[in-house]
Amino acid sequence: MKAPATPLLSIEDLSLVFRTRHGTVRALENVDLTVERGEIVGVVGESGSGKSVMAYAALGLQDAAAQVLGGRILFEGLDMLAAAPDVLAATRGREIAMIFQSPRTALNPIRKVGHQIADVLLEHTAVRRSDLRQRAIEALARVRIPDPERRYEAYPFELSGGMCQRVMIAMALACSPSLLIADEPTTGLDVTTQAVIMDLVREMSREARMSTLLITHDLGLAGEYCDRIAVMHAGHIVEVAPTVELLQRPAHPYTRQLLASTPTPRSSIDQLVSIPGQLPDLRSDLPACRFSARCERHVSACDERPLPWTVISPQHAVRCRVPL
Amino acid sequence: MTFAGFARNAAYAFGENRLTLVSVVILAALVLCAIFGPLIAPYDPLMTDGTARLVPPSAAHPFGTDALGRDILSRVIVAARLDLGMAVIAALLSFAVGLALGAIAGYFGGWPDRIISRVMDTIMAFPLFVLAMGIVAALGNSVLNVIIATVVINLPFYCRFARAEVNVRREQGFVEAARMGGNGAMPVLVNHIVPNILPPMMVQVSLNMGWAILNAAGLSFIGLGVRPPTPEWGIMVSEGASFIISGEWWTFVFPGAALVLAVFCFNLLGDGLRDLLDPKRRV
Amino acid sequence: MHFFWKRLLGTIPSLIGVVLVTFVLSHALPGDPAAFFAGPAANAESIAEVRAKLGLDRSLPVQFFHYADDLRRGQLGNSLTTGQPVLNDLIERLPASLELTFFALLFAVAVAIPLGVWAATRPDSMVDHACRALVSIGAAFPTFFIGLLFVYLFYFLFDIAPQPLGRLNEIMYTAPPRITGAYTVDSILAGEWSVLRASLAQLVLPSVSLGMFALAPIARITRAAMLQALGSDFIRTARASGLPARKILFSYALRNAMLPVTNVLGMVFSFLLGGSVLIEQVYGWQGVGAYAVNAVISSDYAAVQGFVLAMALLYVLLNLVIDLIATAIDPRVRFES
Ligand SMILES: Nc1ncnc2c1ncn2[C@@H]1O[C@H](COP(=O)(O)OP(=O)(O)O)[C@@H](O)[C@H]1O
Ligand SMILES: [Mg+2]
Predict the structure, then answer these.
(1) Does the interface ipTM go beyond 0.85?
(2) In the CATH scheme, what architecture does the domain B19-38+63-281 have?
(3) Which residue has a Cα nearest atom 1 of ligand 1?
């Protein structure tokens, strides 16, 4: 398959910090990532590695304390970090949609879920007010919510977590976006619901030829649903590869540790290894390779800046001087 | 750093605490007036002077004189004792009673809790100032009864606060340990729980003090408790009120300003103490 | 539907408590009430007669039963000062107090909520600090003192306010025919616009001075609740969905923030009903507060007790209304009950 000339989303050399009372948090550094049309890309890393920060930046929704030091984010040619607020608002929800973890708090607790979907439709589409309700019910029906007319009238607290996530997906897909960002969409849901929700996300992506950026700390989940996976560690993307290749031939020591700590149907609990060490404090002075303190392959060359990308195969690159 | 950013940080780091400091200094001055008032006051606060009625502020009378020629500055200074005294006594009494009742309700639960909470709910079912009026009317018009009324209407705040704090702490490890060590309920409450809730309760006292002053002064303003010619800020404002439409503003402005100052400083102090104790609860 | 009845039932303990307290207060009169009511010229015999007439020779539970029964029939006794049944006096004057309290609340809400929202959208900015300072200063002013200051400034010095003597300048205007008893409403009903204007003009200073004290609690809670709402997950969702900032601020964040705000309204009404007594005194307002102050000063116990009871019942009712509003705002409350 030949990739089209320009990817749908490309994050190029993005560096972002948070200025806080307690120091500067270097949340993202020289992050590169692309999402092609119709592709499902996973971003995997421990909690605190900067996945969500990257996702919000892709929507142009950074926190007030955030400062972009360099790089850009292009979505269909639109620079998400420089565009005017109204252009961004028109893009969000229509072209790029996002779903979150803990769907029950992600919905307005005192507004009927149907109205929340209708709000988005009203904002982004030319739907007539008289058709609004019908369109929102259709959106609910599309994610196969049983009895959508009744669910339209429900408040979030009347629905289960899984049902709320379906509503979130219905809302996200209501305007047929070309990119869906799913930030830990199944964290906090029970295992069967997780699978149902992920199958739904995949099916919707395929059906609408929508690209999806799936953010998760669970490499197993990403391995099951993604075409390509980027591994993130402490604000760096350390490895990018097609899923099969990444799972079979990880090149970064961190990826290998992630793999070893991921349960598979065939592994038993006691075979799992937890990743040694912790994420470095992002407020401290950080070495060129932020994994070096946890890495048994660390050599003195690792401390030289800049840390280059090593190309393993055309689609597989790793940011490590001593790849596996 | 931008100027706005700098100003913001300066205001944050310096402002709040400095204001607390200022309020402490002013309160100390008021307390001095309360203690040594008659010695500090330039005139006898009760001395009338038929030749110097309604004199505007001047060098001899910085706050002017009232309709009977009494020096308003002296009256304002001497009144501090009564105003602060009533509020402090009332606040401390309701603090003590509220703490005791709240601790019992929170620690034992069950029917003592139900009864105490019901009584507090009933007090709160009244507009509090109106209840205070009713209490003073029923018990008789005296300073003591104004204090009692103020105690009653403040009680629910302390009691509920203490109850909630005790309830949380009852399950904590060190209390469990003390109980396991064979301590009875009372020793555990008095030695282990109450000392821990005293600091937040003290914050509550200083936040409440301003309100206690306002209530007592309000009751005096409508003629309850203190009687003329006793100097008291509320009654002085009420006496001065009749001279507004003839423009003798100093008769009511200075005693009123004293009230505002005292209440404002207690509020600032309370806010400052709360920030010190629990920065997260700032609103 | 059934939550309404539940709330209504929930006020019964408060009502019982209120009646009990007023009963206790009526029996806490200094000295012997029978001797008091029998008057100075009474002898032992006539005192005993009065005692029997008042039912004071019965046991306390029986007395309480009679007391509650009297209340049920609207028997609050006669006022010593007006010679009228206390109930009539209260009904006569209550609309004036309610009108004043309503406009004070209107002022407080109309100023404090926008202020709180404004401060919350710019936390820790100069605007925020200025709002906070302003509101704290307002909270330190005794209601009666603000009232007098306003009279001095706006009536005496600047001469832009009407005479602070009651609800209407009776020399230039005649009160509208009484329907509700509130001059503003009655003058609208009667179509007397000049009277409406005049009565509104009389209302401005009293209601602003009364509402001033309520600014602080409302503004503070609005700010805190807005900050919390703006930081919550569903606002993030709304932003990520590209909803316009205005819609996010008002129909998403503010509506959620209104719940804590309605919850402090109970406290606010407690202030307002108490403060109205003082303000009525300052502005010669012929409401129940001024009536009660006279009654207290002249030891007119029946009138004072009637007033305390009426205010407490009103307050219980207002709290019920607040509860119902909270229920209307937040569906979760509706379903919990
Ligand atoms: N608004 C913020 N202010 C300061 N630090 C932040 C902010 N948002 C995120 N961070 C920091 O950025 C890092 C990455 O966070 P995040 O993207 O949420 O991680 P995750 O990979 O779990 O989604 C964390 O160290 C976090 O503390
Ligand atoms: Mg995250």
Answers:
(1) yes
(2) Orthogonal Bundle (1.10)
(3) A63
